[in-house]
Amino acid sequence: MAVFKEQSPFKTYTGDFTGFLVVVLAVLVVCVSRGKRRRTGTFPPGPPGWPLLGHLPLLGRRPHVKFSEWSREYGPVLGVRLGPRRVVVLNDYESAREALVVRADVFSSRPDLYLMRLFSNGGKGIGLAPYTAKWKAQRRFTDRTLRRLGIGKVTFEGKVMREVDDLVSKISDCHGAAFDPKYHVGVGVVNIVCSLVFGEHFKHDDPLFLKLFNALEDISRYGGSTKHLNIFPALRHVPVLNRGAVRTMAAVSNGRDFISAMIGQHKATFDPSNIRDFIDAYLLAISSEEIEEKRDRFLNEEELRQDIFDLFIAGTESTTATILWSLLLLSVHPEIQRKLQDELDSALGPHQDVSVLDRPYLPYTEATILEVLRFRPTPFGLPHATTADVTLGGFEIPAKTQVLINRWALNMDDRKWSHPDKFDPGRFVDPEGHLDVPVYFRPFLMGRRACIGSHLAKMELLLFLSTILRRFTIKPPEGTPAQSLEGHLGVILQPPSFRICAVPRSTTEN
């Protein structure tokens, strides 16, 4: 907490720069030597690394792919060094399940990293906080409250469809001309979380809403460029190298200011007999004279502020990226798009809007969404950490070791998937045409840190994608070169910038 509250964690260093680098190198040498002295037992194997920097210079722009390649030689439980820190990377379903489900008590914490302390305001909230009784209380309350507010149920569908309809209207205004869908999808997804948390739907040009949206965009844009500070925190004082961190933390501050203002408004209008949204439910739990469970004593306004911040981070960027990947992939696979549209037309008829209740009748649509999640996943998600010394896959992993789950490797494992580098929704459909999801496919991970927003994300993906494809046929603009599908890794795997044409289906073959 004290770290977050320092007045300027990214002050520019103004002293002797050479002397500063000497100090940094000395600290690194001490960290490495301490790590070596602590080493006991057989740590998971990996390729040779560089002095001081470890494997960082070898990872390139696609570390998820490099880890996957190394795991073929050294095994699925991979040991690497990121600077002075030893890190374990799990690259197959069996080792990931063993850690996150069978050994959940040991593998459910978070590492003590500089940026994670900053983002979590000193270990608060449900996303980045360590695995403690306080975290369990926050997670339990949040899960319970989201269910009560209708997440994943048809009762919440109207709030999602309001944003879907706004998006469809914006697409219609383009009249089939090329446009970039990123902004229009992004504001819709953010507004859905606003409806859940604040009980309010914002106009997309509302200055207050844009303050929040722009803060989340900056966190997404610059957050990936700050990872080096988790490894070498002293670099936050170095000009140029701290630029991304300065922008990111300014965005975090703006986001928190917005959330604090909304909590203040809710406190001024709070009515315990009329619970409007997540903030009201939390305020009721705090103010209740008879707390439902003793463990709820961990609920307080600071935790509420961080919980909301975590819900926005978890519930906006990855969902927006998945919708964008869906549009991009279907635009370059017209045969898959047509098959999906044929299913929607057959199941719903010419006028009926899609609903979450239609899922049983839309196996290929569901399969397409799952294939997008498999083909272009969030490669790592948030890092885990061990709370005690543990053995995994025959190797000894010390307490407080950072653990990464390489979802890219799980989803591209050719022992599990036929032609994994091919985009093919049919892999999730059995010969009788029913949805068939293998047990080893976990797009929202598993265990006690599984994605808390998975039910909302599934609803959003179905309603956004189905409604768009009911109304339009998505195509690349005429004459554009083949679009790269590699993506770029920031906080998540973002699709490249792209433009599409959405042609009203009334002018295409039905």
Automatic annotation (TrEMBL):
Gene3D superfamilies: Cytochrome P450. It holds the Pfam family p450. GO terms for molecular function: heme binding; iron ion binding; oxidoreductase activity, acting on paired donors, with incorporation or reduction of molecular oxygen, reduced flavin or flavoprotein as one donor, and incorporation of one atom of oxygen; steroid hydroxylase activity. InterPro entries: Cyt_P450, Cyt_P450_E_grp-I, Cyt_P450_sf. GO terms for biological process: organic acid metabolic process; steroid metabolic process; xenobiotic metabolic process. The chain crosses the membrane at residues 12-32. The keyword Transmembrane helix applies. Keywords: Heme, Iron, Membrane, Metal-binding, Monooxygenase, Oxidoreductase, Transmembrane, Transmembrane helix. The keyword Metal-binding applies. GO terms for cellular component: cytoplasm. Heme binds at residue 451. Its cofactor is heme. Belongs to the cytochrome P450 family. PANTHER family: STEROID 17-ALPHA-HYDROXYLASE/17,20 LYASE, STEROID 17-ALPHA-HYDROXYLASE_17,20 LYASE. This is Cytochrome P450 18a1-like. It comes from Branchiostoma floridae (Florida lancelet). The lineage of its organism: Eukaryota, Metazoa, Chordata, Cephalochordata, Leptocardii. The gene is LOC118429090.
